[in-house]
Amino acid sequence: MSVSVENPPTAEDFATMLTMVSGFFVTRISATFADLNVAEHLAAGPLTAADIAVKEAADPGYTFRLLRAGVTLGLVTYADGRFASTSLLGTLRADAPNSLRHLAQAWTAPGHWGPWAALTDAVRAGASQAEAVLGCGIFEYFTKNADEGALFTKAVTDLSIPVIKEAVPVIDITGVRTVADVGGADGAFVLSLMAAHTSLRGTVLELPHAVPAAAAEADKRRMTDRFSATEGNFFEYVPPADLYLLKYILHDWNDEDCLKILRNCRQSLHPGGRVAIVEIVLGEATDPGIGALMDMNMLAMLRGRERELAEFDALLAEAGFRRTKLTHLQAPYAVIEARVDK
Ligand SMILES: C[S@@+](CC[C@H](N)C(=O)[O-])C[C@H]1O[C@@H](n2cnc3c(N)ncnc32)[C@H](O)[C@@H]1O
């Protein structure tokens, strides 16, 4: 193989590629900042590396070197022997709105890191290597490793908050009394919809690892009187409802699996009911945007894929639904609402 003579890489290309291939340094450094609660420690003002090392029972010399790398990345600044927080570091604070702390930790935890390390094998084999690496699928792994499962639940919720804010006002709840958030993690979506419409009753259907988080979230929001967390498997059954929320669910699964989930929804749906799907809608391959990167997460971790609108329409039609509304949210997300096709 030789480098194309018509389009040789420039010095800038080499610099860009160096940033790309060392990207995992940045990923791991960010996660270690989160693990060591650096954002929380620096919230009250600048500290020395030794101060933080004492608080975290860490090695002071290594903590200094970590924080110095954080200066390079713009996470902290350094003056007079002390490190100070930047606004960028604030994104890793657990109490920041849309915090990225849990995501930084969840994507570097063994459940994600291991299958991603086998990405080349996945592409060669045409199948995620998660089972080969973890000994089971990711969701079973989360059930067996409850702490990492709970961390993942927090991470997807944090990531979801801006999308939920945009999705809630656009969802048509005419005639809806009961809502089931299918694979709803801690229930942030259905609880937000219920907060906007106080007549609604809601439930989350989830695997065992996420049920406690859903119950706790309803309790925190003082909404337990209108809410229940149901343990179950959406491939077997979904509880009856007027509206099903399917947010970031279909992208986890192949078409055959999606059809099982959608058909279970169709079977349990109250007459006149509908589904609201919140997903990335992929653009053309000429300009696929960030959705194509999330698609690699599906490829590495699961049997799923991100889809174009026509692919959602085809799935819905095959499961007996018809799309009735499409609302684009912040790119690349959209709400796809559908009714049973008579
Ligand atoms: C990508 S997360 C999306 C969570 C949530 N809907 C959101 O948007 O934040 C997928 C969720 O599906 C749940 N899940 C996976 N398999 C399931 C199954 N067979 N039955 C019920 N829930 C399942 C997982 O526990 C996880 O919380």
Q: How would you sum up this structure, described in words?
A:
By secondary structure, the protein is α/β, with parallel strands linked by helices. It folds into two domains: 11-96, Arc Repressor Mutant, subunit A, CATH 1.10.10; 119-340, Rossmann fold, CATH 3.40.50.150. It is built from 16 helices and nine strands. The chain has helices at 11-21, 23-35, 38-41, 49-56, 60-73, 101-106, 110-117, 119-125, 130-134, 138-144, 146-167, 188-196, 211-220, 255-268, 291-301, 309-318; strands at 76-79, 82-85, 178-182, 201-206, 227-231, 241-247, 269-280, 321-328, 333-340. Strands 5-4-3-6-7-9-8 form a seven-stranded mixed beta sheet, sandwiched between helices. It has a two-stranded antiparallel sheet with strand order 1-2. Helix 13 (211-220) links the parallel strand 4 (201-206) and strand 5 (227-231). Helix 2 (23-35) crosses helix 5 (60-73), helix 4 crosses helix 5 and helix 10 (138-144) packs across helix 11. The protein is globular and about 70 Å long. The termini are far apart. 37% of the residues are buried. It binds S-adenosylmethionine. Residues 139, 153, 156-157, 160, 183-185, 205-207, 210, 233-235, 247-249, 252 line the site of S-adenosylmethionine (SAM).
